[in-house]
Amino acid sequence: MSALRISPLAGLLSAALLLTGCFNEADKTTENSTDSHLRLAMLQPPRSGLTPLSDDAFKLSRWSTAETLVVLDKLGEAQPALATKWQQTGENSWRLELRPEVKFHDGTALDAATVVNSLTVAARAAPKPRILDGVQLTAVADGEHAVIVTTAQPDPLLPQRLSSPQLAILSQKAYSASGVVDPRHTGSGPFELVQVDGTSSARLERFDGYWGEKAKASGIDVSFVPDGTARGAALRTGTADIVEAIPVSQAPLLDQRLIHEVPMPRTNTLYLNTRLGVMQGPALRAAVREAINRQQLVDNVYEKRADVAQGLLGPALPWAAKLRQPVAHPVAARKPASETITLATFSDRAELPEVAVYLAQQLTAAGFTVKQVVREYSQIETDALAGKFDAFILSRATVLDSGDPVAYLYSDFSCKGSFNIAQLCRPEIDEALQRASAIPAGEARRKAIMLAENQILATDAAIPMLHERVIQGEAANVRDALRDPRERTLINAATQRNAQAD
């Protein structure tokens, strides 16, 4: 990596932590700068040296420096990117044609050998990128401008899988013999990553050789700012143009015209233990469902910056509500007789312990006796998965890396699911999920997913309470920042900062 260099934004944000009372005036040097670099304050620093084989891949994607073969539209369907078209050529194989005349930032050309190299490195990595969990994938060249990708088992979602930022295509110079992947100067997007300063900052410059629309901004100056108060201050003082994940507590302190709430594919859900304890009985699970006041949670814990849940899949999946059918609960609720519920959650997400307090009050009012358990996630996950609690509050991502919710539903609600906190095992639900997983992406698959959701909700094994939003800050003179529920995109070629705010 290059020698240490602290960006102006990083310096200003560090000072903000010490000068919390001095935010009345924006930094004049930054404000009057003619540089059209976008200044971005991000929540989390890199955890794995910005290798695309880790979750750091999503930073490279949000900066538009590393690109994938395909991208997803709002419905989660695959659209062309570095691949222009694809077709299934066998039960387990797909052929993808590559976009011509694509150059990487190091000047080399996109070709089949480069794509094969990137996919092979990902497939052989240890640990594998999360998108390839349980997937055996191989790639071979089919001439100079096409590749054939084969999986050990039929995978109707392979094009969607290839959209994951963890399967970004970098030039061959990115990959070293030691296994280190360096994304500097090796992407193909409209911005070239030129400098990374550890976990403090990064700098990108406009890539004039980009195959698509040239970037309107001259570059991006990134600072990693884990402290939420400092991120809010950066927007308020004008020292950042775009700010990730402003905390709910900071939002009321900011100009409301500068903050934008983006629905997340994340549902705050109460899982009930269907195998052990008092929640084995469906009538008491129904009583829990009827006792929950979702609106109170949204209003008091999330300060109205969340959406009351109607199902497991929320507004971040715009097709879900249209296809959802009323749930026919087979068992009526029984009035509790002071049965004791052990209600557990974790402290890593600040809102969850507060949700637990409100839920305990609601369940107590309904006639239950409630015992609360709150620990750090690393100390509670094993017990939750072992069924040691009657009820568990979880903030759960419902759309994983392929952009499709079947993996989440299978993990959480199938007999062999690896994250089955509810201890649920119903053959009819397994069959519904298997049917959905075998259908190619499209309307038929979406309908099958919603039928499976309906069957899961009918058991009251999981009671969805609310869908979370993320708050994104944008300065008044920023144009065309992206507000992506999947958090894959943020800045693209069209994003820019005008010289003067309106």
Task: Give a brief outline of the structure.
It contains 14 helices and 19 strands. It is of the alpha+beta class.
Number of helices: 14
Q: Give the CATH level 1 class of the largest domain.
A: Alpha Beta
CATH superfamily of the largest domain: Dipeptide-binding Protein, Domain 3
The level of helicity is 25-40%
Q: Can you tell me the CATH topology of the largest domain?
A: Dipeptide-binding Protein, domain 3
How big a fraction of the residues is strand? 15-25%
Q: Low-confidence parts, pLDDT < 50 over ≥5 residues?
A: 1-34
Amino-to-carboxy terminus distance? 40 Å
C-alpha geometry: globular
Keywords: Plasmid, Signal
Pfam families: SBP_bac_5
GO molecular function, one term: peptide transmembrane transporter activity
Organism: Rahnella sikkimica
